[in-house]
Structure formats: C-alpha cells, structure tokens
Amino acid sequence: MQGSANLNVMIKAARKAGRSLVKDFREVENLQVSSKGPGDFVSRADREAERIIKEELMTARPTYGWLGEETGETDGQDPTRRWIVDPLDGTTNFLHGLPHWAVSIALEHKGEIVSGVVYDAAKDEMFWAEKGAGAWMNDSRLRVSGRRQMIEGIFATGVPFAGRGPLPATLQDLARLMPVCAGVRRWGAAALDLAYVAAGRYDGYWERGINAWDMAAGLVIVREAGGLISGIREGQDPLESGSVIVGNEGLFEPFRKIIRGA
C-alpha cells in the first residue's frame, strides 16, 4: 500500500498494537471462567496497546500533540498537528470474547482530520485513508454503497447501556427508522461502524454521545470513500458535539431527516 510517511507510521503502530491485542484476546476465553473475571486483564491490554501506539507515533513525530482514550491530552511543540487514538474500540466485545474490535488512529492538522487508520486485527482488515487520496481496505479501494431506497438500506448505531443519557432519543430513532429500512445493527465498535459504511457494508450510521477518538479516523475514511457526514443537529461538528450521522449519497438526506425527527 502506498501512503505518506505519516500514514505509514500510523499503519505500523496499528499493526504492532493489534498483534499485542490479538495475543491478549486469545487469553480472554480462559479468563471468562475465573472468579475474578477478565475485566482487569482487558484494562491492562487496553493500556498496553496505547503505550505501544504512543511510543511508535511519538518516537517518529515527537513534536505532535496527543489525545488518547487512556492517557488523555498532551500539547505538542507543533500546535497544528495532533494524534487522536483509541487503542481498543469495542472493549466490551473484547471482554466477552467477541472478535469485533479495532485500533483507531487519526492525525489532525489545523483542526481537520487528514489521515485515519482503523485496524480490525482479529480479521486482519486495515481500513485507511488520507485527505485527497481515497479510502482503502488493505489494498482494495473503498466506495460507499450505491443504494438509493431506504427499504434496501442497513444502518448501524450504538445503543447506550446502563441507563446512559441518550437512550430515550436513540429508542425514538429506532422507532422511526426500523419500519422503513432493511435492518439496524448494533455491533459495539464505532470505528468499525464507520469503516463499514466506507466499505459499503452499511448504508449509514448514527450515534450520540461518543468521543472524538471513537470516530476521528473513521470520519476521514468515510469522507474519502464518498460518504456524507453531519452532526445530528443542524450545524453541529461531530468531533465537538459527540453526535454524528454518516451515509451514502443516495440515502443520506432521507436518513438524516428520520434521525432528526423531521
């Protein structure tokens, strides 16, 4: 695969962290039956993956800023560039032995996401994109789906758990959307939901209350695959608001109207 020097650094870091996580993932099934459970183990796996990524990225680009799920935010000497990292998106899936989780790495330049990598290590699928260079999965070019009828579309979302705030709104979304589409999926990894829209596996995705590191890499991959992106409310910036709607060109407007309750 051809890419910039920065992208190659990102891919190398994602693969290295992915190898570490796959090794740990093989241990999860054994831990399920222990009295302590796998929770502490998975937390360590998550932190170790972020340590690996941070070491790789900051060694290669020591002046860049950093925003990571586990280690928070650090300003860089270069105020225009920042890494945005989720070392393990889909932690609950990982915890339960479900092979649907990913490493997510994005590069922000002057407030814009210009490169993104989402690595599904369990399936060895590397989704990646750079501004102006298209979106790819391994060596295959990605394009969003061409479906134009809502009743043919499959959409993805995240349903809030444990009584979290956006649950009532999400249930209302589902009540409006499910009667007019082919199905809704909730697979528990926002980065992969976005990558799947870019790959045409889903026709759209929406979610409220997610963090920048959950979606930063996925957004540039969707955009470079020809997808459309907006906040759930008019004028919202998804990275700042934590709410996002994405879709292919043919279904984006009717999908967005349904989610907005219009």
UniProtKB/TrEMBL annotation:
Record-linked InterPro entries: IMPase, Inositol_monoP_metal-BS, Inositol_monophosphatase-like, Inositol_monophosphatase_CS, Inositol_monophosphatase_SuhB
Cofactor(s) this protein requires: Mg(2+)
Gene Ontology MF: a single term: metal ion binding
Species annotation: Falsirhodobacter algicola
Keyword Ribosomal protein: no
Keywords attached to this entry: Hydrolase, Magnesium, Metal-binding, Plasmid
Family indicated by similarity: Belongs to the inositol monophosphatase superfamily.
Domain of life: Bacteria
Catalytic activity annotation: a myo-inositol phosphate + H2O = myo-inositol + phosphate
Protein name according to UniProt: Inositol-1-monophosphatase
Catalytic activity, EC: 3.1.3.25
Matches recorded under SUPFAM superfamilies: Carbohydrate phosphatase
Binding-site residues for Mg(2+), renumbered to this chain: E69, D86, L88, D89, D214
Cited PROSITE patterns: IMP_1, IMP_2
Entry annotated with the keyword Magnesium: yes
Pfam families from the UniProt entry: Inositol_P (PF00459)
Gene Ontology terms describing biological process: inositol metabolic process; phosphatidylinositol phosphate biosynthetic process; signal transduction
Record's signal peptide: none
